[in-house]
Amino acid sequence: MDPYAALRYKEFNIFLIVRFAMVFAWSMQFIVIEWQVYSLTKDPLSLGIIGLMEVIPAVSMALFAGHIVDQREKRNLLVTCIAGFSVISLGLFLLSWPGLEEAWASKTILYSIYALVFLGGFVRSFLGPTIFSLIALIVPKKIYPNAATWSSSTWQLASVLGPALAGFSISWIGVHWSMCVIFGFSLFALIFLFKIPKKPIMNPKIGEPVFQSLRDGLKFVFGNKAIFGALTLDMIAVLFGGAVALLPVYAQDILHVGSEGFGILRAAPAVGASITMLGSTRFPLHRNAGKKLLMAVFAFGICIIVFGLSELFWLSVIALFLSGAVDGVSMIIRQTILQLKTPDNMRGRVASVNSMFVGSSNELGAFESGLAAKLLGTVTAVVFGGCMTLLTAGTTAIVSPTFRRLDLQDDIDLHEKED
């Protein structure tokens, strides 16, 4: 297979630029918020609350967002999502204004940050399904796996640079002007997106009753063993392996490496995942996908345990790097399963369920980690999460032989015949 197949489509390249700018801005913003909130409170539970504030609206709106995405034109819907994110970024920029910090109480600023993060959860509930659906309208079906790999690689590259720049920019220019950089990237994404023309709506059931639409979407996901198995496995692993939410605690109180070290720690998993994803463009992962996914999740749990116990900065960075590398395998396989096994008219709803299972479990994992750290201590909480991840992978391998034998080559051959 041509490793650059998807990149030969101009609109897909534009899409990758837009996605990079958005993920860069979003990941950088989340890091800056984490740093500011922990600096205000010195309470690890406050870091978990950030995740909780985003996950509540993201989960509550997810299914309805999927229905709307399947009913609407995708390019303009993505424009609306990015515009909403830009407004939130502008609000956070104004909240971090030095004069305002002197005039307002710390609690007022904290609650205002939580409120904007809460609004961001509504935006995110639409953003993921819209992006997932738009990819399928830009490239032909036979190169979905290659397009999914490049899209995921772009996401990871932005996730590397966003947190890394966040850590350094906090040190160099402070929280306030870091927020200004984030706002600038969101505007760039918004402007560039207009280079992609509007796309046709593939759903033949326009105007279908909402609850019937939601029922059909859930029935499809829960009835497809490959999709349901991949989502469930990743959800539990991410839920209990959310050690990255506690990185400000490790950077400030355990490893004592400051904001620059925090940026390196935060970027390490994404560096590992990016290398894995770029390698997968030449060495596809669709053969024996089930076994590879289970092995990747198991290895992820081991990396999290090593990170939790480490008191050495270099060992912590290596553990996080390797956790990202194996998580990259998991992400590619899951995205390939979703792209290959989801019909065009259900992409919004399936992607919404995916965001509920996996995307939102990042924030729930952050809350779980923050709460566990408050009750058990930071190190114990991280090690506990890693052990639960190992247990999840092992149990799935034993009780689900069908998933363990999953291979995606037949699906790829079928789509090549259709095209």
From TrEMBL:
Keywords annotated in UniProt: Cell membrane, Membrane, Transmembrane, Transmembrane helix, Transport
Could you tell me the superkingdom of the organism this chain comes from?
Bacteria
- Subcellular location as annotated: Cell membrane
InterPro entries this protein is in?
MFS (IPR011701), MFS_trans_sf (IPR036259)
Which Pfam families does the entry mention? MFS_1
Annotated membrane-spanning segments are: 12-33, 45-65, 77-97, 109-138, 150-170, 176-196, 227-251, 263-281, 293-322, 375-399
Topological type in the membrane: Multi-pass membrane protein
- Return the protein name: MFS transporter
To which species is this protein native? [Muricauda] lutisoli
